[in-house]
Amino acid sequence: MTFLADLIQTLINGILQGGVYAAAAVGLSLIFGVSGILNAAHGELVMLGAFATYWLSTLYRIDPLLTLPISFGLLFVLGYALQYFVLNRTLGRPLLLSLLVTFGISLVLLNVALRLWSADYRLLRIPYLERSLVVGPLILPLARVVACVVGIGMVAALSWLLASTRLGRMIRATAQDLEMARMVGVNPRTVYAVTFGLGAGVSGVAGSLVALYAPVEPNMGLMWGGLTLGVAQALTETYLEAGLSLLVAFALLYLILRFMPAGIMGKGRLE
Amino acid sequence: MTRWIALLALGVLLLLPIGVGPYPIRVATVIFMWAALAGSWNLLAGYAGAVDLGPVVYHGIGAFVTAALMLKLGLPFLVSAGLAGVVAMVIAYAVGTPTLRLRGAYFAIGTLALAESAKQLALAWDRLTRIPLTGGSAGVSLPLSAGYVLFYYVMLVLMAAVTAAALWLRGSKFGYGLRAIAENDRLAEASGVNIHCLKRRVYVASACVIAVTGGTAGYWLSYINAADVFSASITFQMVVMTLLGGLGTPFGPVVGAAFLTLISEFLGTRFVYHYLIAIGVIIVAISLFAPGGLTSIFALVRRRTEATA
């Protein structure tokens, strides 16, 4: 019985973590899928979102959950500006150039954050999220449940936006066939800027969600490379040892890439 | 012409330790080390178009194998580093065979995952296998080294070897095969280029140079730690230096390594807290205004002067 309860608890921990990972990863994959930009500054965008929530609720006493849309808005503007003024200049250049540019941007963002806010760990105190839901033998920390639900909700909202709105159609058209999209009156530069804004906004909210339950610091972006491996990581942490969880996570990623190149669901785009 | 300038520069660099003190030699050694690492990465990414985000695997393997051979078997440094290169080649052959079949972004992410797994494996190695090799997170200390001039020459030889290999690729049939793969691998395969065999040869050869460089760097620092020698930031620095200098050019990695090392040294001593911000801005500026890298500026200037002459 305890074995079963432990297993279910572990799976739930993994899923709760996975919801936030998914939110962080979707921003990276949206930008890569539409503009072909390998965004090396992704982790820094997540970090900035976390700091937006931290400072807005610490300095201005805004409820942390209400800071999520503000965090999205701030990061959207930053992302839009970065694409419009900087990254649009790399269009038509080799793919790797965008990696170099975003690496430079990540250096600037990370070190500006370190100068402004130091490398201290800062933890938000949110009394009403510090409780846990107890279901029989299972314990669900409320903050993580909220983060997971909001994260998954945001991924769903983004797929709705891409599937069913005029803007979504413009974005998908640009991703599928740049020349044809241009012919029917889509301005790719604006679409790329909006896409980067959306990707940055979503990544920022993912950072804000992390700030609900974990400490915030400038270097936190390093581990948010955008990997949807929550379950595997939590399982290994319980059944093997903490140090091996990343080994299993990355080994799993390698195996998926090697043997299921269209993704676990088999619906991805193949090169 | 370029070759004669390169040979002249090599001659000057060979005699340099006679004339200058330890500090410039140390900076030069750092430049050669990064030029060798970035140059090895350039062979695969710049010529065969395969973007490897896990070359640091062989840097780490080189460092630990060199350390183990020196400490456990008492072998001399140069023999240990050479054997570490051989070990890395064997591992690269085994790893490269399945991995090089991945294409484009999948190869990049796959190798990144591979490097991170290798790091975690190295950190857990001693506990898992009960064979002491990596020292876990505590790392391994090496005997204090013989003097800085040895490292200067080893790194210089490594850099020269990689640059010579890149120059050879520029005009050889092997190099044309690689470039055909970079342009269009399906078409290259259809025209009779054995793409897997060619890519694997480059992958294995660059793994050897990276491992020897890693082994030398480990002995130079006299302390190695799995988290550092397998760090993804080493990979990123190799990529950034190559792109800054010029991807797919023989001297690009050398120019990129020299530029980034010198500017970090110059700004780092003057603006201790802000220099990384400045370097970020410089990287963005160069990639926007000279997207072909710094060597493309030299090429442009030379074409202009030839046109006016």
Short account of what is shown:
The complex is a heterodimer of chains A (271) and B (309). Chain A folds into 2 domains: 216 residues, no CATH class; 43 residues, no CATH class.
How would you characterize the overall build of this protein?
The complex is a heterodimer of chains A (271) and B (309). Chain A is mainly α and 271 residues long. In chain A, 68% of the residues lie in helices and 3% in strands. Chain A folds into 2 domains: 12-227, no CATH class; 229-271, no CATH class. In chain A, helix 5 packs antiparallel against helix 8 (188-211). The longest helix of chain A is centred in the N-terminal third of the chain and has 34 residues, at 2-35. In chain B, helix 2 packs parallel to helix 6 and helix 3 (56-72) packs across helix 9 (195-221). In chain B, strands 1-2 form a two-stranded antiparallel sheet. Chain B is built from 14 helices and 2 strands, in the order H-H-H-H-H-E-H-H-H-H-E-H-H-H-H-H. Chain B has helices at 2-19, 22-47, 56-72, 77-99, 104-129, 148-171, 173-183, 185-190, 195-221, 226-229, 232-245, 252-270, 275-289, 294-308; strands at 140-141, 223-224. The mean pLDDT of chain B is 89. With 309 residues, chain B is mostly helical. The interface between A and B is large, with 36 and 41 residues.
Keywords:
heterodimer, A: 271 residues, mainly alpha, 2 domains, two-stranded antiparallel sheet, 10 helices, 2 strands, 68% helix, globular, B: 309 residues, two-stranded antiparallel ribbon, 14 helices
What is the number of independent domains of chain A? 2
* H/E topology pattern of chain B: HHHHHEHHHHEHHHHH
Rounded to an integer in angstroms, the radius of gyration calculated over CA atoms of chain B is 20 Å
Shape of chain B: globular
- Given the structure, what is the number of helices of chain A? 10
* Residue share in helix of chain B: over 70%
The number of E-state strands of chain B comes to 2
Largest sheet of chain B: 2 strands, antiparallel
